[in-house]
Write a structure and sequence with these properties.
Blueprint (H helix, E strand, L loop, with lengths): L5 H4 L3 H14 L16 H19 L4 H6 L14
Helix pairs in contact: 2-3
Length: 85
């Protein structure tokens, strides 16, 4: 993530688990390398966006993984946004 290991970028175990979730759900941890640039938002938003991005990339890589990702609720975007004045 942004030139660093994700464990260094996301020090919390909860965030690390969120990032790893799409790879573990599909069993592709050892077959796929992920490189991502993340900007804006807080750590929680960045972590959720990264998880969704990985899930979408896995779907493009192998269409048969989509149902597994949907069953784990990894293909759903959180539509909540910060309320502006």
């Amino acid at each position: 993530m942004n030139g660093r290991e994700y464990r260094e970028f996301f020090p919390s175990l909860q965030y690390q688990a969120m990032v790893e979730a799409p790879l573990k759900a599909t069993g592709t941890e050892s077959r796929v390398d992920v490189m991502a640039n993340i900007k804006g938002g807080g750590l929680t938003g960045q972590c959720g966006a990264l998880s969704l991005g990985i899930a979408r990339a896995l779907k493009v890589l192998d269409q048969s993984l989509e149902q597994t990702l949907r069953d784990q609720h990894l293909m759903t975007r959180d539509a909540r946004m910060k309320e502006r004045k």
